[in-house]
Amino acid sequence: MESVLSFTEYVATRRQLIEERLKQYLNYDDPPVLWESMRYSVLSGGKRLRALLCLTSAESIRADALEIAMPCACAIELVHAMSLIHDDLPALDNDDLRRGRPTNHKVFGEAMSILAGDALLAMATSVLIDYTCSFVNADTLLKVASKLSHAIGANGMVGGQVIDISLTGLSQDKLKELDPQVLESMHRRKTGALITFSTWSGACLAGATLTQLSAFKRLGQVLGLAFQITDDLLDVTGDVYRLGKTPGKDATSGKITWVRFFGMEQSRKMLLKLKQEAREAISEAQLSKSATGLLDGLLVSFIDRVS
Ligand code: GRG
To answer: Which atom of ligand 1 sits closest to the CA of residue 83?
Structure first.
């Protein structure tokens, strides 16, 4: 990791590299409408926080790990993009706006957006495997590929989304009886699993020790929960221009969010606690001062973000 780069410069250069690589991976045209639909959602200006976490985690362990972790960072963005496409569908959240543009199904129709999501999901695995296999041994690659599948499946994003659906529309009386652990489990799976994979996979591909791996896993878990609580707060306090999506959607669709369950004050206190926990996890990894500084900058971008 280049210690001479400031946090802002580091993030800007890495974001640009991520964009270029994603464009390169998506540079196909057969069938044209499918690839157009895939590109429409992936190359639409996301913050790339998960990819950045993966790259920063890798480079904090090994200064020359950028190339090793880049395919994995891109695979994570492909999974993230497909989850947003499917999440916006009428059968799920039924959203019209994403990243400041009409959602995928509004432009390409429902059938094409389901298929574009499916293709992106499959592509994530092939990008990870095809472009990482020359850098790491087969055991490491299999472990990383398997963890990615777990982060996506029933114990990860899909399971979290199912809990989300089952809690939507709960009456105020039923809400009082809800075990907060169910809410936490929903967040840890739906949003946290991919964020945890991001920190863990970067560190793993760069050859982290077991102690460091457990610190990076913890960091991802804490950031994942913090990210979703921030998202819930932004749904109440954010505006459409900065968010690029419709605010207030959680309340109108009867979603159970951290803010609805615990209130604004408690949610903000929880974020402060999680920030402290994230800093403890970073210090457990015993990294260089510059790596610690970059990870700290990223954790602030996760928790104090306004978009
Ligand atoms: C993954 C197979 C598979 C299915 C998806 C729909 C679904 C199952 C899961 C929902 C996952 C989801 C959409 C969680 C919400 C995560 C969230 C808060 C996204 C916003 O992330 P940002 O702010 O977005 O990083 P940008 O646009 O910056 O990338």
So the answer is: 5
Question: Which sign, positive or negative, has the C-alpha torsion 43, 45, 51, 52?
Answer: positive
**Ligand 1 pocket check for 136: Cβ under 6 Å:** no
Report CA Rg, the chain.
19
Give the pLDDT band of residue 239 (cuts 50, 70, 90). Answer: confident
User: In a mutational test of the pocket of ligand 1, which residue from 49, 84, 121 has the highest number of ligand atoms less than 8 Å from its CB?
Assistant: 84
Q: Is pLDDT at 209 greater than 90 in this prediction?
A: yes
Round to whole Å and give the CA distance between 252 and 280.
Answer: 37
Cα-to-centroid distance, 83 and ligand 1 (Å): 5
Residue of 191, 232, 306 best suited for mutating to test ligand 1, as the one with most atoms within 8 Å of CB = 191
Which amino acid residue places its CA nearest to atom 6 of ligand 1?
Answer: 87
Nearest CA to ligand 1 atom 17: 191
For the stretch 46-78, what's the b/e string if a residue is b when 16 or more beta carbons lie within 10 angstroms of its beta carbon?
Answer: bebbbbbbbbbbbbbbbeebbebbbbbbbbbbb
Instruction: Compute the average pLDDT of residues 155-166.
Output: 96
List Cα–Cα distances, 198 to 51, 88, 136, 212, 262, in angstroms.
Answer: 7, 23, 17, 14, 28
Nearest CA to ligand 1 atom 13: 84
pLDDT digits (tens, 9 = 90+) for 218-227: 999 999 999 9
User: What SS3 class is residue 101?
Assistant: strand
Put simply, whether the predicted model's pTM sits higher than 0.90 gets the answer yes
Q: State the Cα torsion 55-59-62-63 to the nearest 10°.
A: 130
